[in-house]
Amino acid sequence: MYPTLGSVGPFTFYSWGLMAAIAVVFAGIFLAIDLRQRGLDPSNAIEIVLAAAIGGFLGARIYYVVEHWGEPGEGLFSGSGLVWYGGVAGGVIAVILVALWRRIPLGTMANAVAAPLALAYVIGRIGCQLAGDGDYGRATDLPWGMAYPDGTVPTTQIVHPTPVYESLAMLVVFWVLWRMRGRLTAPWSLFGLYLVLGGVERLLVEFVRATPVSVAGMTNAQIISVILIIIGLPLVWRGIRQGGAPPLAPT
After folding, report:
1. Coil, strand or helix at 76
2. Rounded mean pLDDT of the chain?
3. pLDDT(74) > 70
4. What pLDDT does residue 250 have?
5. Element (H, E) at 52
6. In this structure, are residues 87 and 60 in contact, taking their beta carbons and an 8 Å threshold?
């Protein structure tokens, strides 16, 4: 594990922070391509991904603090601790504000950010793996299990490397979403597919993650995943029923 990559003077460079920055860059590149193909200004991609990154970080941190309210050392600006679904909520709010400012239809914006959002998740989970930040799973005797003795949240147990599982699964989700951009063109439909596929991925991986059970034998993440799948399915169905939509313009 490589939680830190070195330091220059008083500045320490963290692997998760580096991967988060790379995620923003690559998400911006693919978003610019998508916006251009939709006949929109690709330069808007810069402010969209920056807004999503800032809103996502704040949302992830706020969700974490609320979940761990009252625990020692858990303040809004203390230490580490980020929750993906809180990040999605914060990022969505920020992107909506940008869309309203730039007068981009919300349904179109939602479809445009679907695939880049999945790609950002892939890269972000690589950062979690490098940092060993506690997102790993339960103990396992599978041959690809690993320990995180030097992680931010260390363990010498052999556990499921769930950040690797999630990176691989969401890479497939990104590929599917990118290929489907010209087919699911009804407002919100491609974003609906992101909710369904991303929700299924998180629902399944939670079965091997070291996450406390909350309600009805499910973790909080699984409950949210089910809600997102339920929201996403009718959006996808609407896009499928529309049919005959013109393809996106070539780059």
Report:
1. coil
2. 86
3. no
4. 59
5. helix 44-67
6. yes
Structure tokens given for 183 = 């087919």
* In a domain? residue 93: yes
Q: List Cα–Cα distances, 173 to 9, 19, 121, 168, 194, in angstroms.
A: 40, 19, 10, 9, 8
Give domain status of residue 145, yes or no.
Answer: yes
For 25, left (φ over 0), alpha (ψ -120 to 50), or beta? alpha
Strand 146-148 relative to strand 11-14, pairing: unpaired
Domain count, the chain: 1
pLDDT tens by residue, 103-141: 999 999 999 999 999 999 999 899 989 998 888 999 999
Per residue in 131-171, pLDDT (tens digit) is 988 889 999 999 999 999 998 889 999 999 999 999 999 99
Using a 10 angstrom Cβ sphere, with 0-12 exposed, 13-18 middle and 19 or more buried, the burial of residue 242 is middle
Asked if 136 and 210 count as a contact pair (C-beta separation under 8 A), the reply is: yes
Answer yes or no: is 251 within a domain.
no
Contact partners, residue 124, CB within 8 Å, separation at least 6:
19, 20, 23
Which amino acid does the sequence have at 160? H
Question: In this structure, is residue 249 part of a structural domain?
Answer: no
Domain range for residue 204?
4-242
- The proportion of the chain whose per-residue pLDDT surpasses 90, expressed as a percent, equals 58
